[in-house]
Structure formats: structure tokens, C-alpha cells
Specification:
With 144 residues, this protein is an alpha+beta fold. The protein has a single domain, classed as 2-Layer Sandwich (Alpha-Beta Plaits), CATH 3.30.70.260. It contains 3 helices and 7 strands, in the order βαβββαββαβ. Helix 2 runs antiparallel to helix 3. The longest helix has 12 residues. The termini are far apart.
Length: 144
């Protein structure tokens, strides 16, 4: 089964974004000086790109992708029941691509955090309802 990336993301230091061609004002983010990083999530659909930008205190977070599951209130309740125990930064929501259901979310958690063990154990309990669950760590993008 082909795995679709519904979004792309990277973490970038705040001082690097000011040199980017794309100018984005971060002035409206409350207490921006307390956040050394930002998470940029990019969604591309046909002829549009949506960027979501989140201030972060960490330079690594977790992205969880669920694929190939039946859309039912029970399955959605199982996913949300687990994820509500962790700080969700961003979610794609449930999307159907080629008759397959996908769901992505970014959690304010890294693989080295103690709570990551809880996440893995919780996901293992419900892994039978998915064709695939992918956990990846998103880290600081290397500047060229």
C-alpha cells in the first residue's frame, strides 16, 4: 500500500525564518521571545498550499500517521481517546485518498520523552484497526 504524506513539516529556528523569501509575520504570537523554534506544516491540495505555523520550545516532535482504517465513530473515538492524553499541536483530520482513510497529527512529544513509551503502548493496543501506524520524529531542518 502506498503511504501518502498529507502534510510536510519541519522545525526551523526563528532567526533563520527572517531570511526566508517567504515573509511571515510572527509578531502576533504571544510571548514569541520564549519560543526558539517554529513548526511549519505544509498541506498541498491541487493548486493551493496551506501553511500552519506553530511556536515551539522543542526542536523535535512526533508525527503520527494512521492509514487504512474504516471510518466509524468507534475508531475515531479510539484514536482521539489516546491522543487527548498528549499535547496535539496540529492535526490533518481524517481524509479519504483512493478509498483509504488517513489521519495525521503532530504531538508536542519527542522519542526521548518519558511519555513516548505511554504513546507507543496505547497505540499498540489499537493497532489491529489500522493497516499501518507510522510514528516519526520531526526535527530541526538543517540550513544549507
Amino acid at each position: 500500500m502506498k503511504v501518502y504524506n498529507l502534510t510536510r513539516a519541519h522545525i526551523q529556528e526563528i532567526n533563520i525564518i527572517t531570511n526566508a523569501i517567504l515573509k511571515v509575520s510572527l509578531l502576533d504570537i504571544k510571548n514569541i521571545e520564549t519560543y526558539p523554534y517554529i513548526l511549519i506544516v505544509q498541506s498541498t491540495i491541487e493548486n493551493s498550499i496551506k501553511l500552519s505555523i506553530y511556536p515551539l520550545k522543542k526542536n523535535k516532535i512526533i508525527k503520527v500517521t494512521f492509514s487504512g482504517f474504516n471510518f466509524s465513530n468507534q475508531n475515531i473515538d479510539k484514536i482521539t481517546g489516546i491522543l487527548q492524553n498528549f499535547q496535539i499541536i496540529h492535526t490533518s483530520g481524517a481524509l479519504v485518498i483512493n478509498k483509504q482513510l488517513f489521519y495525521e497529527c503532530y504531538l508536542n512529544l519527542s522519542i526521548n520523552d518519558i511519555k513516548f513509551v505511554d504513546l507507543k503502548a496505547s497505540l499498540d493496543k489499537i493497532k489491529n484497526i489500522f493497516k499501518e501506524v507510522i510514528i516519526e520524529e520531526i526535527g530541526l531542518k538543517k540550513s544549507k
